[in-house]
């Protein structure tokens, strides 16, 4: 017997604790229960359809109910749903590892599986630290990381330690390990008061100074390539990632790239690193790896990292990390099908006109009275709302302007989720151009309603 909608909402309110949500505000009006999905639509329990404007938190790639991925999961289910990856292997995990290395930046050679982006980054940090301790010429003094100040790399203690968004991380400061933090290249709100077109990358110079001063104790530079997602879609100047790679090489420091959000086509190439032909020493991937179907993540490393952990059993140099569902066969089967679709449907090629369309329409949105900045990298975009465009004065977060825009969007059949005052647009790569147009039209309309209507200016 189907549970009544009002009963589902009541049960949710009584038993569920939602992530990144102030549950005191979780009223009956707020609750939207998704029942099913198709193409690029989510459909709720009242049969209302919504364009999935944020790819179900940045992970859906080709859309929902994709036949090839559905069939891959069903076929695998007829074989085995799960077996441990500790001391055993499985067919889809092995085949996927080969596919990932073939798709990744040249030079990455080994795949370590996990369950989420946070864990993939936690693994990257632990591997990088242990690498300097167990390699043939150990560097035991290397025990610190450097990262960008507005970084977000996940919610585990290690990944939070290399994060820098106080709203998410401040409360956990006593639990975190010490790191060095460098300015983020936030061009719209440049700390040096400079213009993107004429600056001399002063933000990079601070990072360069930190690495030069502390390189003897630095394990790695940790960075989200091209764009800092959770910080508000903050895009980096051209060549910034290349300079970081050169800096890491110059001072014998590892480079860890977090491609959890940017990977699998989000920036217009398979990985963001591809756009500057950069190969990190360690790269974390998740989100889009299964096309948005099942939890899976991976940490990819160069062969030199892997080889440092090889030794006799009694040396105990193995990497002691792993969880119950590591390399789950169902998830790996979905990921394999996802990557095959990229090839068969030429996903990256067909994406380019949609990136251009988004860029064109965002320029119109940029002109709105309370839009301070528009940032786009491929199919990732952020629209920053401000109280005063001329002074760049932001809205106070307690006004919940971003939330207000997204609430309005639901009335027009669009699901979005803001990052504070930044409206995020990150639809599935497979979205049709007419739906993309509709998404952008609704976004513009809702920004106008929220910021320009009477009493909201």
Fold and architecture overview:
This protein is α/β, with parallel strands linked by helices. It has two domains: 32-62 and 346-452, Aspartate Aminotransferase, domain 1; 70-344, 3-Layer(aba) Sandwich (Aspartate Aminotransferase, domain 2). It has helices at residues 5-15, 55-58, 67-77, 91-103, 117-134, 157-161, 166-169, 202-214, 240-250, 303-308, 329-344, 347-366, 401-411, 433-452, and strands at 34-38, 41-44, 49-52, 108-114, 144-148, 180-182, 218-223, 227-228, 234-235, 254-258, 282-285, 297-302, 371-377, 380-388, 393-394, 414-415, 418-419, 422-425. The strands form four sheets. The chain has a seven-stranded mixed β-sheet with strand order 4-12-11-10-7-5-6, sandwiched between helices. Strand 17 (418-419) and strand 18 (422-425) form a beta hairpin. The chain is globular.
List low-pLDDT spans: none
Domains, number:
2
Residues in helix, %? 25-40%
CA-based gyration radius: 22 Å
Rounded average pLDDT = 95
Main sheet: strand order: 4-12-11-10-7-5-6
């Amino acid at each position: 017997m189907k549970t009544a909608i009002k009963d589902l909402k009541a049960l949710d309110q009584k038993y569920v604790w939602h992530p990144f949500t102030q549950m005191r505000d979780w009223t009956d009006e707020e609750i939207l229960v998704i029942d099913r999905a198709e193409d690029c639509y989510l459909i709720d329990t009242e049969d209302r359809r919504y364009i999935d404007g944020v790819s179900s938190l940045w992970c859906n790639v080709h859309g929902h109910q994709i036949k090839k991925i559905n069939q891959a999961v069903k076929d695998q289910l007829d074989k085995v749903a799960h077996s441990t990856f500790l001391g055993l292997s499985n067919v889809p995990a092995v085949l996927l590892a080969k596919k990932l290395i073939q798709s990744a930046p040249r030079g990455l050679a080994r795949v370590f599986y996990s369950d989420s982006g946070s864990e993939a980054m936690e693994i990257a940090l632990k591997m990088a630290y242990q690498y300097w301790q167990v390699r043939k010429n150990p560097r035991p003094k290397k025990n610190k990381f450097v990262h960008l100040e507005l970084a977000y790399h996940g919610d585990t203690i290690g990944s939070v330690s290399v994060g820098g968004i106080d709203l998410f991380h401040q409360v956990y400061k006593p639990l975190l390990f010490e790191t060095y933090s460098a300015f983020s290249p936030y061009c719209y709100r440049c700390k040096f008061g400079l213009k993107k077109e004429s600056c001399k990358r002063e933000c990079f110079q601070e990072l360069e100074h930190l690495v030069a001063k502390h390189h003897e104790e630095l394990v790695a530079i940790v960075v989200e390539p091209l764009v800092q997602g959770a910080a508000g879609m903050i895009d980096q100047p051209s060549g910034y990632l290349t300079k970081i790679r050169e800096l890491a090489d110059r001072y014998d420091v590892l480079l860890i790239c977090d491609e959890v959000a940017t990977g699998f086509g989000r920036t217009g190439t398979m990985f963001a690193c591809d756009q500057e032909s950069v190969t990190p020493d360690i790269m974390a991937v998740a989100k889009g790896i299964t096309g948005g179907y099942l939890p899976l993540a991976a940490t990819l490393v160069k062969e030199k990292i892997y080889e440092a952990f090889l030794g006799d059993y009694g040396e105990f140099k193995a990497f002691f990390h792993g969880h119950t569902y590591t390399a789950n066969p169902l998830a790996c089967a979905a990921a394999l099908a996802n990557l095959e679709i990229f090839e068969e449907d030429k996903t990256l090629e067909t994406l380019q006109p949609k990136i251009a369309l988004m860029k064109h329409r965002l320029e119109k949105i940029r002109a709105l009275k309370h839009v301070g900045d528009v940032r786009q990298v491929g199919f990732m975009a952020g629209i920053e709302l401000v109280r005063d465009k001329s002074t760049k004065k932001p809205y106070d977060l307690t006004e919940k302007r971003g939330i207000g825009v997204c609430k309005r969007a639901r009335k027009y059949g669009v699901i979005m989720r803001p990052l504070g005052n930044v409206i995020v647009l990150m639809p599935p790569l497979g979205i049709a151009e007419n739906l993309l147009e509709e998404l952008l039209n609704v976004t513009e309309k809702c920004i106008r309603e929220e910021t320009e209507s009477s009493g909201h200016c």
